[in-house]
Amino acid sequence: MQPPIDLGFRACSAVLQTGVTDQELFEYVFGGDNTLLALSFVVNIALAGLTILGIAYLGRNLSDPRPKAIATALMLISVVSISSYTGLTSGLTLGVVEMPAGHPAAGATTAGQDGVLVMWGRYLTWTFSTPFILIVLGMIAGSNWTKILTTCAFTIAMCVTGLAAALTTSSLVLRWWWFVLSSTFFLVIVYVILVDWTAEAERTGTTDLFRTLKLLTVVGWFGYPILWALGVEGIAILDVATTSWGYSVLDIITKYIVTFLAMFYVIDEPESITGGADYSASLPRVEPSDD
């Protein structure tokens, strides 16, 4: 049986089978006048790598299991990012999609093919990285795992429907319908962060940190649908390179900056963060007897 990730790559490749090879897309990005587009990928690979090393260094002395779990989730955000941006850089997760009739970019050509460049690998990044961001936020707020996993499910639905919006070529109306669905799932997540988790952070005693993290995350996340709507996938006011840099800057804010702010707080292992020896254990810890 093939792993789900491999099947996902094959499915996207089948959808984007337009005759453009990975090598041709690589040469289009790095061999022409697309320096800004190429830099939007390479800079994030470097930052993700530095973030992974930074977390490993800062977390080397953590002893409590709860701060360790938060640090692991923080590291996995950048692990996903460096993998995804490498896919974009290599051309593996790029594609050329012909826009439906009525779209402002209908009739455009890219790398000698009809259609526009679609960075569908970014949706893979968001699908696998945003759940870890929510896990971190939920744990810092002191939320329960039912609510944390529910938000993770909604964020996966948000990213998958966003990908559907980017790849739909049959109808302009359907593209925007997918976008509306994705935005609706996004608003559910925003509500949980701003209302439920804010109240829980007050009870937990992590209000100051959580306030900073939620503002950076929520404000940054609102930028993604705005860029989608203004970019080549939406009404095409922004070109591909500008849109890509917009996404990259938002990734820097909502991933790497948020990561280090949270990590600097966690390494001190304050009482509001620590969970004790029994944290996540299914049974209470039993101390050995003296007999």
From TrEMBL:
GO terms for cellular component: membrane. Keywords: Chromophore, Membrane, Photoreceptor protein, Receptor, Retinal protein, Sensory transduction, Transmembrane, Transmembrane helix. SMART domains: Bac_rhodopsin. The keyword Cytoplasm does not apply. GO terms for biological process: phototransduction. It is a multi-pass membrane protein. The chain crosses the membrane at residues 36-58, 70-88, 123-141, 148-170, 176-194, 215-238, 244-267. InterPro entries: Arc/bac/fun_rhodopsins. The keyword Membrane applies. One of its GO terms (molecular function) is photoreceptor activity. It holds the Pfam family Bac_rhodopsin. It is found in: Membrane. Signal peptide: none annotated. Gene3D superfamilies: Rhodopsin 7-helix transmembrane proteins. Belongs to the archaeal/bacterial/fungal opsin family. This is Bacteriorhodopsin. It comes from Halosolutus amylolyticus. The lineage of its organism: Archaea, Methanobacteriati, Methanobacteriota, Stenosarchaea group, Halobacteria.
